[in-house]
Amino acid sequence: MSEQEIFKKLIEIMKKLFEGSRTFDYKSINLDTKPMENLGFDSMDLIMMSFSIEKEFKIDISGLSVSSFLTVRNIINYIKSQMK
């Protein structure tokens, strides 16, 4: 799966999770976007997103601190590393 495909799925996960509860421009999200700083996510948001990522990509994130997901690029790189 390419980086672009993972990125698109990640945006869809965010839309499903935060629709109605958060307002941000999904088109402005890029690889360097920082979920906590730029999108206003808190640790609970990252945990919820990690559960959805695990389900969508069939990977395990449980041993990883979601606080290491500093940028969208970090998330994508982690997903890619677990899909091999």
Write the layout of secondary structure elements.
Layout (H helix, E strand, L loop, with lengths): L2 H16 L16 H4 L4 H15 L14 H11 L2
Helix pairs in contact: 1-3, 1-4
Tell me roughly what share of residues is in helical segments.
40-55%
Assess the beta-strand content as a share of residues. under 5%
CA(first)-CA(last) distance:
10 Å
Uncertain residue segments = none
Q: Biggest sheet, in brief?
A: none
What does the overall shape look like? globular
Give the count of helical stretches.
4
Structural class: mainly alpha
Number of strands: 0
What is the mean predicted local confidence, pLDDT? 89
Instruction: Work out the radius of gyration.
Output: 12 Å
Instruction: Give helix and strand order, one letter per element, not per position.
Output: HHHH
Which features characterize this protein?
84 residues, mainly alpha
Give a description of the structure:
The protein is mostly helical and 84 residues long. Helices cover 55% and strands 0% of the residues. The protein contains four helices and no strands. It has helices at 3-18, 35-38, 43-57, 72-82. It starts with a helix and ends with a helix. The mean pLDDT is 89.
Brief rundown of the structure:
The protein is mainly α and 84 residues long. It contains four helices and no strands. Helices cover 55% and strands 0% of the residues.
